[in-house]
Specification:
The protein has one domain (8-73). It contains two helices and two strands. It has helices spanning 33-42, 44-73, and strands spanning 8-12, 19-23. Strands 1-2 form a two-stranded antiparallel ribbon. GO terms for molecular function: protein homodimerization activity.
């Protein structure tokens, strides 16, 4: 494997007041594991299913927290 180089190069011109900064994209041959997991779970049909299931789970968590909170707030003494 070759060492990765920084993609930012800075050069200053002596005869002018303008500075030049150039950024080059560093290409990697392998995607990171986080990126592969994101691509698998968050796109396509599986991504839609994960978002729907996440929404349903979030709804039930908020519902249960509200129910428990309401029970203790409105409990008769």
């Amino acid at each position: 494997m070759q060492p990765q180089e920084s993609g930012v190069h800075y050069s200053r011109w002596d005869d002018s007041s303008r500075d030049e900064v150039s950024m080059a994209a560093v290409s990697s041959t392998e995607e990171s594991s986080c990126r592969r997991i994101f691509q698998k779970l968050c796109t396509g049909k599986l991504g839609v299913a994960m978002k729907v299931l996440g929404g349903i789970a979030l709804f039930w968590v908020i519902f249960i927290l509200g129910y428990v909170t309401g029970y203790y707030v409105h409990k008769c003494k």
